[in-house]
Design brief:
Protein name (chains A, B, C, D, E, F): Asp/Glu racemase
Oligomer: homohexamer
Pfam family, one (chains A, B, C, D, E, F): Asp_Glu_race
Shape of chain A: globular
Largest sheet of chain A: 4 strands, parallel
Structural class of chain A: alpha/beta
Largest interface: C-E, 53 and 51 residues
Family (chains A, B, C, D, E, F): Belongs to the HyuE racemase family.
Strand content of chain A: 15-25%
Helix content of chain A: 40-55%
Order of helices and strands of chain A: EHEHEHEHEHEHEHEH
InterPro entries (chains A, B, C, D, E, F): Asp/Glu/hydantoin_racemase, Hydantoin_racemase-like, Iso_Racemase_Enz_sf
Number of strands of chain A: 8
Radius of gyration of chain A: 17 Å
Strand order of the largest sheet of chain A: 2-1-3-4
């Protein structure tokens, strides 16, 4: 049995469920998904400030996941908050959903487009493209200009805007795949892939499969060098529980 | 049942067996590995000339694999010969072992080293790093200065040189993972990972798991845009069988 | 009167004093320095995990600084933890000491070297070089292989190692300036500049002068676009005080 | 007498004639052009699959050219198929027409535009820009959306589309030169240069002059390092003639 | 008393006054601005030829400034003509206004736009972005298509075009700050910052504050390495006065 | 008859002769070389200050060359001083010797080394590599640590140091070609190419052949866009003769 912890870094339980369902839909027979979210933090993540707070929640959860014996971790927010910090804490692999979706996109297309929520989050995607090495693989970035939680309001408006933006990207960008830029869009990927006739990639499911792959390969986060365990030191105040 | 075709682009059957074994060792329960090599071509691949010839063999095999109904393809030579051409031919995913190993390395370490065979092949690795976006993720490239087939001569000399070079890379490069730069080194990864206490990554097994992952995600090579099927045209002479 | 808040992101009061003194030593006549550190967090910052925790402390302090009416903020840890998040919170300028030192170095030399504490923090410096655009301006990165707090142990050993490393960098790197890679090295810069006969740059003092400069220019953090105020949303648990 | 072999990598004899004529039009008095094409392969090259096949034809011809004592070789397809492999085989210089045109463009303008045939080939041009170092020198890439052989259909439609696209590029791109992205456009360059009042560059003629230049300088392909002769090994099947 | 020499590299005295006024408007209490321009050269700088001539005037003035005991120098033309040459001549800091404005922009926004005069000068800005490391921080470059001296014709037309272009950049570029690309636009920055509600940055004032900052830090141009004093050698003819 | 003006940007007549001889040695039958140097300026060029002065001499000579009806111009100093300014002045091609040598090197090898005179000039070479796009094609830069004029002192010491450095580069750099980084080394290239068994490239001869090539192609400097003629304006003082 492989336990994979899928961490929704925000506190919205509806989104945790969406994400957990997307993860379970692709999990291998021997994989069990534990979908979690922090008990405290931000209800949605739409900027660097939100990300900084969410990163603490991610670390808390990684620590708990280790105690539960999980084999690997997914950070299910498109900004991959706390990714390298979580890797220091973890022995198994830790994969961000932006990272997973971008990697997958480069394996099935020469260039990809990104469709995300608010314009202000585009800079986060740009920085991740640079960090992961994919700046030149990204043909264009788009934002539907609706907040993250619009994806959970039940109206379907945000989903329709995502769809329209994907159609437009297909026509204009000259790219071969589309990366969905929010954990809350996870459930849209299969359908849009079918409708558009091109890969539309959700990072949650991609990250789950990458964690499974790395675990099967016997590859965890390297403990040689700069991702080694955090140096033991007394954490004070609200951070004591991370000791 | 998921059929994955693992293509050794050279004609050395011993290496095809090594590669096939490495692939089967990590294949998921529902995956069957078909390890093949071209009937004609080069016995080993150690430069651009060899790669150009090997690419034809890869295309032949991809075509045959499709006829057999395989779900995805692995190109098991560290130069990833014919990768984009094969993607045009394929509907499922096609993954090169350099590509797979480099991607995997960036998921478990901030920077990686490469250990390969002959110095003259380093330029091929450099070009792939650039194409895949990982130039800045590679801390150093090393060559053991032995030809590819030395890995199959039974003496163990090449294997020992790989080991020594890995140990040295660990000491000097400041990287967190090592990528083995030849399909013929596939069987060394697990043992060296254990001995060195850091991820030593074989691309054959990594590529198999990535193909499995993409297949499970319902993601094949994009047929929208520049990886679309080759435009139908009459191929003449020795290439007619690729029609 | 210009109030500049200098935030030591770790909880070591001795280091806060070192940093505060370095800041005051260069402050203009009309500038008052408020040197602070978080009440809770990590005693030193030597990796991504430490940085994630420290970022929260930085945000707390920025919020307090705004309430006090400060004109700008300095983040006095060489990893610039929480920089973009802090910029969302702030109306005045926010400058990290790595950022300030790197910028200053490119203004007085064509290429610079970095001398920092532990090797594991080099990756943080590398990522900042990439984010700020200075990858090609950095000739070499060095670590003295002592923890941050060794700079506060009174023995002078760490200081001597910094000096030796700077001398070696001068001989070998072909660079024209040296950037000191830790807030705790702030007091060494002037003396080493004199001894080496080349600019040795401390980020704390550099950041103070850059904040002063931006304030005098009437330039604060842009509130148009992706550094706009954080979107108002209920923060829960230990983060409520950041509302 | 300097013999220069101009290789049309596709099997269309009409295009071989176009290319040969363009080469002869600029050849120096002491230069003789041998325009050849493979006896087997693809009638036009419009993707990676076509290129992989064409590369074998290029290698065959380079081998024959060497036997004939030619001083240098031109690969007259805008994707420069088989370039590095051909360099391994050759002692004289080997120049691709994309390479030649891009180099020439950077010598007469700060930035250039590319006008090519099918949109799916743009990715090949992008990869060459990256390989040659000219990504930042290319202001824009355009495709007329007609296949390569439309240039040989006698209607003049493709030629008119090239002209229109060049005029548009002049108005919009902010570039100082235009690179024609297909060997079949070779004859258009002089006229368009005159009509547009800016350099419109054909790679066939540019490559011939570069080979002449390198030959006169006594510079052939380096046999020190990674472009050294292919390592001798038994080639089997359809590739035996390349031994 | 800190003397800062602000060099208008062209010979237009009206522009020297504009620039001097902008410099004095931000100078610290203890700073005295000496605004100068060459006695011979070009009346405005709108290309590489103009810049080459202007660079000599800059060097003359730097030499005079040193004789006057100035603490630092500003090169007040957006192409930063003669910057590295001037640094060889100077012991204090030398800052170009493009450099200063671009640095400042990256400190208050994640990406910036540039608004300059003639389209032909955009290439100069592009090269500076590359040299300073800010290519990826620049979202867009715009030209109002009026010559530099239109800013001094008293009609206000050029100023209005700058304003319109800034408004358009705010709407379209997705950037957080605007850099004004000409010394003659210095007086517009404060007002446009106010009107647009985002930082609009003038390099003259930014450079003055950066020189003040570096002087206060005790940092001058590095004389270790490649910015060392020019090697003494006999200068002949019109250049003798630079000896 | 094709007249090519080869401009030695420094005032050392011995070097002008060396350069002229190197140019004539490769000139085509129909080419006449006019080797010139400025009447006033610097006797050698070893830094940015020297380059700024030399650029004026280059512009003077280009202007004179145009009056003489030359077809193209070579700037025969490895820093390519005044290159873009000269292109504005010229209608024919203008090629710098660093540019020519670097371009040629990338046509015969995958990576090259540079061997130049003083270490302080290395930064100039680095900036040119970046401007021309060849940063990743340069494996290493070396300086013999002797001034330019040591190449003209008749002792042969500098020449021997160049030779030793080339031999060492061949052993250590993993590059396939060597670029000689000074016009005064022009005569060494052929001999060293022979001795080392790898291309050792002189920029003077390479530039002559590239000018010949561009002239034969009917390609001059683009007058569309940013290399258009300098905007006419009154030049004053010592620059009046450039009007």
């Amino acid at each position: 049995m492989t336990l994979i912890q899928v961490i929704n870094p925000n506190t919205s339980l509806a989104m945790t469920e969406t994400i957990g369902a997307a993860a379970r839909a692709v999990a291998a027979p021997g994989t069990e998904i534990i979908a979690v979210s922090p008990s405290q933090g931000v209800p949605s993540i739409e900027g660097h400030f939100d990300e900084a707070i969410a990163a603490i929640g991610v670390l808390e959860q990684v620590r708990r996941g280790k105690a539960q014996g999980v084999s690997g971790h997914v950070i299910a927010c498109f900004g991959d908050p706390g990714l390298l910090a979580a890797r220091e804490l973890a022995s198994g692999p830790v994969i961000g959903i932006a990272e997973a979706a971008m990697h997958a996109a480069t394996l099935v297309a020469t260039r990809f487009s990104i469709v995300t929520t608010l314009p202000r989050t585009l800079i986060i995607a740009r920085h991740l493209l640079q960090q992961y090495g994919f700046t030149h693989h990204c043909a264009a970035l788009h934002a539907i200009d609706l907040p993250v939680l619009a994806l959970e309001d039940g109206s379907g408006l945000a989903q329709e805007k995502v769809r329209q933006q994907c159609l437009q990207a297909k026509q204009q960008d000259g790219s071969g795949a589309i990366v969905l830029g929010c954990g809350g869009m996870a459930t849209l990927a299969r359908e849009l892939t079918h409708e558009l006739g091109m890969p539309v990639i959700d990072g949650v499911s991609a990250a789950v499969k990458m964690v499974e792959a790395l675990v099967a390969l016997g590859l965890g986060t390297s403990k040689h060098g700069d991702l080694d365990w955090p140096i033991a030191k007394p954490l004070s105040g609200a951070f004591q529980h991370l000791n």
